[in-house]
Amino acid sequence: MAVVLIFVPQPSVSLHPSYGAAVGDNVTVRCHVPRVATWIQLWLNGMLIHNIKNDEERDAVEFSFPFVSLKDAGTYQCRYQVSEPLWTSNRSDPVELVVE
């Protein structure tokens, strides 16, 4: 019996603007995936908030938050899934959005 190990590269996440935001600002969370993914997920404070199908086979997906509010503050992470073969990455290292 052979054991096959699959290396699943970790995604990364970034914020724009990266220094924080004021209530009412527009914030973009960008998820960078190291390979073409079928689904890309965005997590806020450990809860899945977006799960989008990546039909365009992009290596990054942006989530826009126009008119950000205090409820949008917290720790963001990304995760992705590939369908052939089926596997899911670990979550990215977190980034913190501070809203004042």
Automatic annotation (TrEMBL):
<keyword id="KW-1015">Disulfide bond</keyword>
<dbReference type="InterPro" id="IPR003599">
    <property type="entry name" value="Ig_sub"/>
</dbReference>
<dbReference type="GO" id="GO:0002764">
    <property type="term" value="P:immune response-regulating signaling pathway"/>
</dbReference>
<dbReference type="Pfam" id="PF13895">
    <property type="entry name" value="Ig_2"/>
</dbReference>
<keyword id="KW-0732">Signal</keyword>
<keyword id="KW-0393">Immunoglobulin domain</keyword>
<dbReference type="InterPro" id="IPR007110">
    <property type="entry name" value="Ig-like_dom"/>
</dbReference>
<dbReference type="InterPro" id="IPR036179">
    <property type="entry name" value="Ig-like_dom_sf"/>
</dbReference>
<protein>
    <recommendedName>
        <fullName>Ig-like domain-containing protein</fullName>
    </recommendedName>
</protein>
<dbReference type="InterPro" id="IPR013783">
    <property type="entry name" value="Ig-like_fold"/>
</dbReference>
<feature type="domain" description="Ig-like">
    <location>
        <begin position="11"/>
        <end position="79"/>
    </location>
</feature>
<dbReference type="InterPro" id="IPR050412">
    <property type="entry name" value="Ig-like_Receptors_ImmuneReg"/>
</dbReference>
